[in-house]
Design the sequence.
């Protein structure tokens, strides 16, 4: 039964239910992977004897998704912390009748 | 005919045996780097404990969280950017000097984040564990800066700076001078085998640039510019943290070597010149011994500088650890640590730079001394793919490259954050303590008695902090 997302590269063969496994005498069951050197999810799949290969579309999209998320996380960290610090600071300064601090992301009352 | 067949079988057996040996060697290397990575986590446990102990009680949780979150930020940024920088930028920009295209191309291919080498790859057991070892170096580099900025830097500002230092700056200098094909190595024979300058020196320079923009903690200096001392909340935890860092440093040293059991003598330094694991382990051990001694006498028995002296001593002998004799390592570490104590005091009292843990002196100053020592005491060792001898000129070239690279990037990045009001917490937050504002909780049980916060005036008088800080707060420009 196919998974929701089949992300294995085409060099991985799927011989589900082989009985007995072709290489059951071997400790590592590698018959399904014998044509495949690199086989991570969404990777293009590289074969033996070749240098590592670059990505095809799906893996490239996945990688760039990670890059975008990393940047967004950094920005979110700045914004989230800034609001928290300024809220505290504003409370203290307004209590003393001082001007609230000028900071990005916070509108002055 | 039969003889021919026997010869064929024998040759096939030999080939199978050779193939098996190569596989064994690869698996050995994979395990080796894996365990260095595990042990190098202790460096970060150590940094966390060290810094959490040295701050005032109101900043303990924020300090510890800052150390932990270094991992959250440097890991993805190093994966997406850092490894590519190391693999693909060794010739420099623009390329300077002769270069080995073969090595660069292979390394570059393994460095791009969309490479097959970053997933399960049955023909490449080493890339990922080697990447992870470098990643741990990156965490370490970022954490070096962490301690200097304590008690007033914003978490988010620190994380941005950590990503820049850990995933861009240090790994760029590593590409140039800490690889067999880097332009500093190929052209000038620059030799920094266990990263005195590449990691520590550059991190120290970057940190100094940041500290110039960050400024001292409120109340650190009197109106006359004399330095006060804040009392650490738990000196025992601080010393234990340093000991954990020392333990992890053995793994750091080991991970700086290249292992290959099928090639004599089985070990090479980062420039692929032969060495042994034992020789560098000797130097780190003698480096600690000499460093503790130098730190103790130069500081007249001050515990902080005695133990920090051990770290400075090791950093001072790291660059030549693959070739130094134990006695030379011992003596150089002693001298480096002693000079570091003076440098640390000078930075604090004369430059008026508030470096909470002395990182600029211990890592920056000692790191640059480490590079210099190789030029003075270990010239003549062929380094890198072009076999250029190490020399004082090559070491000075490396220092002249790394100092501006570290300092200017740190200064510019922190200057931009400062101009955006994103570098430092507001004064109210600093005085209240970061824990209560950032995390809205007290680390301790409600019935835990809180000691009054104390600090030491320049003349040695112990005073209640609140009085001094309230006075100092009035002078803060808002």
Sequence:
């Amino acid at each position: 039964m196919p998974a929701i997302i089949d992300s294995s590269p085409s060099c991985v063969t799927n011989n589900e239910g082989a009985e007995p496994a072709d290489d059951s005498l071997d400790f590592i069951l590698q018959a399904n992977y014998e044509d495949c050197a690199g086989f991570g999810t969404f990777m293009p799949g590289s074969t033996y004897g070749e240098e590592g290969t670059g990505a095809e579309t799906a893996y490239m999209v996945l990688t760039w998704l990670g890059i975008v998320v990393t940047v967004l996380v950094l920005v979110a960290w700045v914004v989230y912390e800034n609001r928290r610090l300024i809220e505290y600071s504003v409370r203290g300064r307004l209590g003393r009748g001082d001007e609230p601090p000028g900071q990005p992301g916070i509108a002055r009352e | 005919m039969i003889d021919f067949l026997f010869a064929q079988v024998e040759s096939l057996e030999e080939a199978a045996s050779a193939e098996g040996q190569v596989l064994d060697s690869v698996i050995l290397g994979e395990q080796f780097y894996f365990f260095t990575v595990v042990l190098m986590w202790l460096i970060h446990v150590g940094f966390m404990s060290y810094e959490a102990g040295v701050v005032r009680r109101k900043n303990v949780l924020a300090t510890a969280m800052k150390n932990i979150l270094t991992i959250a930020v440097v890991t993805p940024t190093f994966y997406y950017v850092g490894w590519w920088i190391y693999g693909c930028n060794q010739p420099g920009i623009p390329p300077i000097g002769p270069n080995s295209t073969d090595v660069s191309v292979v390394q570059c291919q393994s460095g791009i984040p969309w490479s097959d080498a970053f997933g399960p790859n049955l023909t490449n057991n080493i890339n990922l564990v080697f990447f992870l070892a470098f990643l741990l170096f990156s965490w370490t580099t970022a954490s070096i800066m962490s301690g200097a900025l304590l008690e007033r830097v914003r978490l988010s500002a620190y994380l941005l700076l950590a990503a820049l230092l850990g995933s861009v700056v240090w790994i760029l200098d590593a590409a140039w001078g800490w690889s067999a094909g880097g332009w500093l190595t190929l052209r000038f024979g620059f030799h920094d085998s266990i990263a005195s300058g590449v990691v520590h020196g550059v991190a120290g320079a970057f940190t100094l640039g940041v500290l110039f923009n960050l400024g001292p903690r409120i109340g650190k200096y009197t109106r006359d510019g004399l330095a006060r001392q804040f009392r650490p909340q738990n000196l025992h935890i601080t010393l234990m943290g340093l000991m954990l860092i020392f333990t992890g440093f053995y793994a750091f040293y080991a991970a700086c070597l290249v292992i290959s059991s099928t090639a004599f003598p089985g070990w090479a330094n980062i420039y692929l010149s032969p060495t042994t694991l034992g020789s560098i382990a000797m130097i780190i051990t003698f480096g600690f011994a000499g460093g503790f001694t130098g730190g103790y006498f130069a500081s007249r028995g001050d515990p902080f500088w005695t133990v920090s002296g051990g770290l400075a001593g090791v950093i001072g002998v790291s660059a030549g650890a693959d070739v130094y004799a134990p006695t030379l390592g011992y003596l150089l570490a002693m001298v480096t640590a002693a000079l570091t104590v003076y440098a640390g005091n000078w930075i604090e009292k004369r430059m008026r730079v508030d470096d909470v843990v002395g990182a600029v002196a211990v890592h920056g100053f000692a790191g640059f001394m480490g590079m210099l020592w190789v030029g003075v005491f270990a010239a003549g060792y062929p380094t890198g793919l072009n076999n250029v001898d190490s020399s004082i000129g090559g070491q000075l070239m490396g220092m002249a490259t790394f100092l501006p690279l570290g300092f200017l990037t740190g200064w510019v990045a922190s200057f931009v954050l400062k101009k955006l009001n994103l570098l430092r917490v507001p004064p109210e937050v600093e005085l209240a303590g970061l824990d209560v504002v950032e995390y809205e909780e007290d680390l301790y049980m409600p019935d835990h008695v809180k000691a009054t916060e104390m600090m030491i005036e320049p003349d040695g008088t112990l005073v209640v902090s609140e009085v001094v800080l309230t006075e100092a707060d009035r002078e803060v420009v808002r």
In short: The domain at 23-427 of chain B is CATH 1.10.3430.10 (Ammonium transporter fold).
